[in-house]
Design a protein that fits this description.
Blueprint lengths: L2 H13 L5 H35 L13 E2 L10 E2 L11 E5 L13 E5 L5 E5 L10 E3 L5 E5 L4 E6 L4 E6 L8 E7 L5 E7 L3 E8 L4 E9 L7 E3 L5 E5 L2 E5 L5 E6 L4 E3 L12 E5 L4 E2 L2 E3 L6 E2 L7 E2 L2 E8 L5 E6 L4 E6 L7 E4 L5 E6 L1 H6 L2 E2 L9 H38 L1
Parallel strand pairs: 1-29, 2-5
Antiparallel strand pairs: 3-4, 3-28, 4-5, 6-7, 7-8, 8-9, 10-11, 11-12, 12-13, 14-15, 15-16, 16-17, 18-19, 19-21, 20-23, 21-22, 24-25, 25-26, 26-27
Helix pairs in contact: 2-4
Length: 422
């Protein structure tokens, strides 16, 4: 190799650009960290979708014979799904009310109800009024719809399957100030609504197919309508003061008679299963016992021999099992529950229990007609909406952390360039 060649190679090597080993290593490490951060965000985002879906499968309604009453219910979980969440519920077997934070009573009175599906799918129903404020919520016989007091003189009916909301308003010239649903007909076509004009109460029959209202009766607030009950064949009985009115299908009057002072129809399940008699119980007192009257004349009739109840706050007779047992909604110092009174049995049998904060329980008529019970499996204290919100917070925290890290790295690189060039 000649001297000129060596000198030329030396000069070429001196002027050749050096490979940026450190810069390339830093850039590669930075790209890997960014990729790892994006992968973590993607995994957390996937969990935000997967966790709620694995905890709350889409409810599938069992066939008719499989519909059953759960032997226990639990409190609404924090973050429970709402009745307006999609997919909607196929049906509700139980509706319950209560007090405390689970029912919306953080500061004011509770305004939230609970719905239990056939597969223990728990949903919340927000009505805007407290169960103790006079508003009422009723399950339809098949459990697919819920009727409750709306704004002013309206009754709102929501279909749980497709989340369709209907608002029923009576054509009464604005006289009725409030409207509370009190009874569904067995076929789900008719709804009895109790309204208030201020000094008086009115009872109306609403045809849900066409939306027409028929006024049945008026009464002073002191007299009111303590009980309304439909028979299996569609006949309607309601009490006004001490008088009982029996109407045929569609509202035609059949008979009227008086009950002894201090007596009242037993509730929505006052008709005996065969429709031959009405169940009557004491209006007040610590002892709850039944007797039966003829729906045409009011004369005493023979009916199922049911065991009496003592030292319990009995709400009402809600219906009958196919075997002739009467189901009664009660409340004691512990909580609300439902007991069965079998004809000739020496004691009542509890068929549904609830936690201490539950104050009222209602069951869909279709469930009562099935005569079946099942083991209830209430959810935990945290529901799908909580897990979704928790996963969203994790995603947001990861995104903020990644953005903060990138901004710090960008600021560091910028300062490094300034120092280098200065």
């Amino acid at each position: 190799m000649t001297a000129p060649l060596r000198e030329a190679l030396r000069l070429a090597a001196e002027h050749a650009p050096a490979y940026p080993v450190q810069e390339r290593a830093i850039a590669t490490a930075r790209r890997r960290r960014v990729a790892a951060g994006l992968a973590a965000v993607a995994v957390i985002g996937a969990l935000a979708l997967i966790v709620p879906l694995t905890r709350t499968p889409v409810p599938v309604r069992p066939a008719g014979p499989a519909v059953a009453l759960p032997d226990r219910i639990g409190l609404l979980p924090f973050g429970a799904r709402r009745d307006t969440d999609r997919p909607g519920m196929t049906a509700a077997t139980v509706l319950f009310s209560g007090s405390g934070a689970r029912f919306g009573g953080w500061i004011d009175e509770p305004t939230r109800y609970g719905l239990v599906g056939p597969d223990d799918d728990y949903r919340t129903l927000n009505t805007g009024f407290s169960p103790e404020s006079g508003g009422t919520v009723l399950l339809s016989p098949d459990g697919r719809s819920v009727a409750y007091s709306g704004d002013g003189r309206a009754v709102e009916v929501v279909t749980l399957t497709d989340l369709r909301l209907r608002q029923l308003v009576g054509d009464d010239g604005g006289q009725v100030r409030t409207a509370d649903p009190v009874a569904w007909s067995p076929d789900g076509r008719w709804l009895v609504v109790r309204g208030s004009t201020g000094p008086d109460d009115v009872l109306s029959l609403v045809d849900l197919d066409v939306g027409t209202w028929t006024r049945l009766s008026d009464a002073s607030r002191g007299t009111s309508f303590p009980a309304v009950a439909f028979a299996a064949d569609g006949r309607l009985a309601y009490q006004r003061g001490s008088e009982v009115w029996v109407l045929g299908v569609g509202g035609a009057q059949v008979s009227t008679f008086s009950l002894p002072v201090g007596s009242v129809l037993a509730g929505r399940g006052a008709w005996t299963p065969d429709g031959s008699a009405l169940t009557v119980v004491p209006r007040n007192g610590s002892a709850w016992s039944t007797r039966y009257v003829d729906p045409g004349s009011g004369l005493t009739r023979v009916g199922p021999a049911l065991h009496g109840l003592r030292d319990l706050a009995v709400r009402e007779l809600i219906g009958w099992w196919p075997d002739g047992s009467a189901l009664v909604s009660v409340h004691d110092e512990r909580s609300a529950r439902i007991v069965a009174l079998a004809p000739g049995a020496a004691a009542a049998t509890t068929v549904l229990t609830a936690p201490a904060q539950v104050t009222g329980v209602e069951v869909a008529s279709e469930v009562l007609a099935s005569g079946r019970t099942r083991a209830g499996d209430p959810p935990g204290s945290l529901g799908p909406r909580f897990w979704r919100a928790f996963a969203d917070l994790l995603v947001a925290a990861a995104a903020i952390g990644l953005a903060t890290w990138w901004l710090r790295r960008w600021a560091t690189r910028r300062r490094s360039r300034r120092v280098k060039w200065s």
